[in-house]
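=== RUN LOG ===
request id: a7f3
mode: sequence -> structure
chains: 1
length: 357
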Amino acid sequence: MATDREEYGAFDVLRFVLAAAVLLNHLGTLAWDQAGNLAVQVFFALSGWLIGGIVLRTPISGLGRFYYNRSARIWIPYFLAVTALYLTSFVFEPHRSPRWSQFLVYDLTFTHEWFSLKPNALAALAQMPLKGTGNHFWSLAVEEQFYLAAPLLIILAPFGRSVIAWAGIAALLYLANTPYGAVGFGVLAAVGAARHPGWHRHWPVRVALTLLLAGSALLMWVSAWSMWGTTAYWYWFLAPVFAVVLVLLLAVPVPRGPLARWLGGVSFPLYLNAWIGMFAANAVLKRLYLEGAWYRSSLEFVTALAGAAVIYQLVDVQVQRHRDRFYTPAVGWGACIAAYALVAGGVVFYLLVSSGR
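=== RESULT ===
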């Protein structure tokens, strides 16, 4: 396995394409309903591969730094996005759902995926701030839960570096139809690469991976537009496979140019905050009585990208530039404790709410 994340230049472009696919799916430009979710599945497999690889190279003494880096990279942009969403809802939605504060707690504690959509998903979406605009936060919850579980399984568990053990874990997550299936496959691929460096780059393997990618894509397409009547089943069965195979095919040494770095960097704020640009574009079009304009989707995409570019420069770039200045072992372990405490707090809050206290 490559020892430096910098080698994977193709991943920068991939991240941007995935974030754009999610946005275009929300805009209705992509006709396939599962296009956005498939992009998220690839994100999950990519995290499993990259973060799994990082954890495999991290000693126990380096866990504090691992949690600090993840917290600085994810938490600061994420909590700013949550703040922006809920402040906008507070100002523009005077008649908020009784569950408004619950959704806020779940988003702040990375437990959205577990609790926000209970007991009825459609009803919950209608009650969420800005009519479910922040429902994409569920994927950040899954990512954070993975960051908490990965070190425990990989570093502390005696089977953590076993390909056979991870094959079993990945299979269990996959067959149980959990949102962690693609993540598990990504970690399995990383563990395999740690044991057998470059196994996925040999041409017979790449040919097999290419055929598997094409076959899974074809089956998803056929099931989506055919009369099989089992579209959802086939999609959830094939999407994690497609995701990890695509990641493995792109996991080759490619230099990262300035444009690729920018595309990769802006993808995270675009995914988190695309709604801001769309909100602004809709406000302008409404004021000009152009809500039905043919170029509405294009304007929404451009404004979303422009807003993400500004946020990237003001937030993400600054975090990356200055985070090393604030690191100490105590701060790192504090971030570790805070990460587990947040999720635990979300679980306790749900139990209290569900019990009627």
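=== NOTES ===
The chain has 14 helices and no strands.
The radius of gyration is 21 Å.
=== END ===
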